[in-house]
Predict the structure of DUF3120 domain-containing protein.
Amino acid sequence: MPLTAALLVTVPVFLQAPWVRSAPMAAALFTLPLLALALVLERRGQGQWQQLGVLLVGFCGSWLGGCLFWGWFRLHPVMHLPIEAFALPLAVAGLGGRWRLAGAFYLGSLLGTACTDGVMAAAGLMDLWPQVLNAPLSEAPLLLQGAAIQVLHPWPLALVGLTASLLVFVCRRLWTLGGTWRVTAAALGTTLAVDTLFLAAALVAPHLSGLI
């Protein structure tokens, strides 16, 4: 399950983002068959298949939140975390019962998102968010690269390094707890890895910004 959780974290980067950009309603409605599949697996599956169904329920929450934000509110970064966190009460409640894996995945993904947004805000990069997304495709890569270069300044770089170190520590502690918490660790750790990859790409190959 931790490996599956890690793979699911990468789906929004390479599949959901371009789909939402071209057809946001279709991407959002895809939540329904995805959730139906998850519930069938949870109800009728055995062993790993049943666990996969529970995990997919948590993924559905992340998927729908991402579709809603990137489809209709992407130019308003202040709305990002509140929209992504719409299922937070359900995820927390699920930790105490049969939906533990779903809640663990959703919370790990949400915590990663919160840390990313928090670092961007503290580093003074939030104002560049709508500029990059609103720019023509010919200009967006240069704006994105400029934002990434700002991260290399002393204060943002120190903040990124400190946050990354803290997240690695949290992931290791969660992993040692075993069981469901390893799914949280996998989701959180993969989010950190994807952010690192995206920052590197923005610096050396900003044309890849079309992936998000």
